[in-house]
Amino acid sequence: MGLMVRANFIILIAVSSLTFKAAAETEKEISSSNHKLSGTLVYSEATKRPTAIIVPRSGKTDRNGDEGREVRGKIYKQLADQLSILGINTLRIEKRDLKAPPRTQETTTPPVTIDDYEADLHTWIETALPYSSDECVWLIGHGEGGLISLIAAQNNTQTCGLILISTAGRNLSSIMITRLKTIKDNMRIMPQISHTVRKLKAARPIPNEKMIPPLRRFFGEHLQPYLISSFANTASDLIKKISIPTLIIHGENDTKTPLSEAELLLRSNPQAKLVVIKKGNHILKAMEDKEQMTVMKAYMNSFHMIDPKYGEEIASFMKEKS
């Protein structure tokens, strides 16, 4: 174990120990549209405190922020530990599985949509409210979680404010086109990809049999309700309607969602505050550069701790605005 890894490991143990003494941790469960979802609440038993819900990014991200072998380190748990020490309660939540199998005669479970994620978040807000020192809770949305938080906060008096971490300002349709163009094998099918995206953005589903096989991975029938509902929402449009305190926090070394996305959000709502974390990446860890190998190591190294500046900036903003 290297010197830096050892130091990070010792810090993690120290932080976890302090958190255990300072706060309690309990499991919470909700039932939303016949779905049971679980979450972990970290809170003070002695007094009510500002309370935030950590809304996860896209993919199979669990409540702790891990995603199989791709992302390790329990980044949301680390953030919750940081915030607890700084006087903030957190509820980190599970979300419905987007990539559930398509409906068959044996199952009647409908595909997941952005509307479902929003409905679940409203239920989580009700769950967190009794622990808040205010008559509202904060939403900390990471990546796609920022979009869902923006949707849920529209005309919602139970939302104190928004923290948008690594959230894209552009529509998902544009982001998908940009990312798929970077894959060499996709170049020959880009016309079909663009056509498919245009149809789905117009809310026109496409049967699998009318798509070439490579497209089904990204645009298959069971994903289309989610894609259509997501394409109908753009963060840079939604943030224009937000009047509650909003912090946009972004890492300068984020290779998945570039800093230009955060700048677009700020231009759309100049009343928001933008904080750029030096060397920060998409998953809240500091990286020295943007080389692919550096990125992969940061994502997969469970001993690579998140940058404490994220917790410090979030707690400071929440306390200032509470």
TrEMBL record:
Residues 1-22 form the signal peptide. Pfam families: Hydrolase_4. InterPro entries: AB_hydrolase_Est10, AB_hydrolase_fold, Hydrolase_4. Residues 113-283 form the Serine aminopeptidase S33 domain. The keyword Glycosyltransferase does not apply. Keywords: Hydrolase, Signal. SUPFAM superfamilies: alpha/beta-Hydrolases. The keyword NADP does not apply. It comes from the Bacteria. GO terms for molecular function: carboxylic ester hydrolase activity. This is Alpha/beta hydrolase. It comes from Temperatibacter marinus.
